[in-house]
């Protein structure tokens, strides 16, 4: 049973397998854009936390915790976006 309303957000290949990444860098599915937007938002939050950690330099343990979380979010966001682009380019 195929649900046509899923085609708005996700597509399928010739065999009917559901895709969430469009296999071209020029076009995108809605779900792909939403996921990329969330990842970019979390990456921006990571950079904000990195900036915020410098404002708490006198509370060393808090500053280090915020810095580590910010670095983790920023690096993971970059890695995930690169992974998505690698899937789109190389299939």
Helix content: 55-70%
Residue fraction in strands: under 5%
Q: Major beta sheet, specifics? A: 2 strands, antiparallel
Strand order of the largest sheet: 1-2
Structural class: mainly alpha
Number of strands: 2
- Mean pLDDT level: 83
Pattern of helices and strands: EEHH
Radius of gyration: 18 Å
What is the CA-CA span between the terminal residues?
Answer: 27 Å
Instruction: Supply the number of structural domains.
Output: 1
Q: Name the shape in a single word.
A: rod-shaped
Q: Can you count the helices?
A: 2
The oligomeric status of these chains comes to single chain
- Unreliable sequence segments: none
What does it look like?
By secondary structure, the protein is mainly alpha-helical. The chain has one domain. The chain has helices spanning 30-54, 60-90; strands spanning 11-12, 18-19. A two-stranded antiparallel ribbon has the order 1-2. Strand 1 and strand 2 form a beta hairpin. Helix 1 (30-54) packs antiparallel against helix 2. The longest helix is centred in the last third of the chain and has 31 residues, at 60-90. The model has no long low-confidence stretch (mean pLDDT 83).
Give keywords.
62% helix; two-stranded antiparallel ribbon; mainly alpha; 91 residues
Q: What's the short version?
A:
62% of the residues lie in helices and 4% in strands. With 91 residues, it is mostly helical.
Layout of secondary structure:
Layout: E1 11-12, E2 18-19, H1 30-54, H2 60-90
Antiparallel strand pairs: 1-2
Helix pairs in contact: 1-2
């Amino acid at each position: 049973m195929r649900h046509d309303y899923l085609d708005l957000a996700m597509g399928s290949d010739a065999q009917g397998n559901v895709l969430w990444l469009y296999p071209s860098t020029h076009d995108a599915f809605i779900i792909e854009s939403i996921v990329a937007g969330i990842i970019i938002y979390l990456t921006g939050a990571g950079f904000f936390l990195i900036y915020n950690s410098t404002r708490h330099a006198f509370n060393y343990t808090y500053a280090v915790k915020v810095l580590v979380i910010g670095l983790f979010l920023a690096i993971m966001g970059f890695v995930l976006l690169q992974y998505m682009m690698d899937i789109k380019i190389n299939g």
